[in-house]
Please model this.
Amino acid sequence: MRMLFRAVPWVVVAMGTTSAEAQVRKEADFRWYIGPQIGVMSFVTPAQTRATVASAGGNILIVAKRTGLLLQVDQSFGGTQLSRYTDSLAAPPDGRVNVSFSSVRRYEGVLLGFLGRGYVEPYIGVGFGIAQAVSPRIAATQAPPITSPGALAIAEQNMSELGGFGYGTLLLGVQLRVGGVTAFGQGQITTSPSTKSGISPATFGRLLQDNMYNFNAGVRVTLGSARERVGAGGY
Model:
């Protein structure tokens, strides 16, 4: 009997904790969240080894019960990056066209599944995205130089065509919920692009190649309920 009375306080604490976590789950369901994120982005180009640079962006998360839709955009920062593609007509004899660009920008939509609900919530996601080399231009190292207006116009079209690609992505993360604010950290990997032709048969390549890796951390604040209010009108 004495052991029973000693166990009562622990049972009460456990019930209180369970009730609090249930309340957290209820308050987190069917809500919009928005916030900034910072991290690192890792990518490869044909002209350089893997670059790992700082990145920053923002995200919107729409949460149901155990699932969510994450929309995010981020951009790398870290100075000029080098790449190249092949155009045997514009750059004889080896056909290499050297390119420089300022950063990489990504747009993504990811479907999330929450592996646990409470104060600490791990999650996994799969989705799709678009990556784009920002402000590509003929590099100063190009030899022989491309100088004719017609060739430069074609090069600009090729850089635009070869500078972006669509990909699939796998994401793993965890978030910590405190009131209406959520802190999170996540990492992801993308699929690699295939070789693409430019605007002519003599042009091919990609300004970005291989898998991309991203690690981000940030905060989200709630914007309120994502459920449509039923019966709010008078008709």
User: Anything to note?
Assistant: Residues 2-28 form the longest helix (27 residues). The longest strand covers residues 209-225. Residues 7-24, 229-235 have pLDDT under 50 and may be disordered.
